[in-house]
From TrEMBL:
This is Acetyl-coenzyme A synthetase N-terminal domain-containing protein. GO terms for molecular function: acetoacetate-CoA ligase activity. The lineage of its organism: Bacteria, Pseudomonadati, Thermodesulfobacteriota, Desulfobulbia, Desulfobulbales. Pfam families: ACAS_N. Signal peptide: none annotated. It comes from the Bacteria. Residues 45-101 form the Acetyl-coenzyme A synthetase N-terminal domain.
Amino acid sequence: MRNVIKEFVMSKLLWEPSEQRVKSSNMYRFMQTVNGKFGTDFADYDALYQWSVDNLEQFWAEFWDFAEIRFSTPYTEVIDDPGKMPGAKWFSGARLNFAENLLRYRDDKTALVFRGRTGSGEH
């Protein structure tokens, strides 16, 4: 019974974004950035995902740049041991301030949401 339910849930598409919405997404912008820099031709998330698995260090280095992570000291290595999951050390040598990165836009949008044990949230 569980497999029947899983197959039904996995095969029924509930919503699909419009092409305009897709092309205005950060995911699409990132995919286009990767395509331009690495000469790839990713047309969808699945292709980008596979590239991220096959090119772990390049993917995360590119995402670091794309996300414009602010830092006081750059990283010297993206990952120390890709075969050590969990437990690998990411972005060795980097020094950054989380508050600076979370609050850098200084707009009126929520930057951080806290959920306590009771499930109550604070912004």
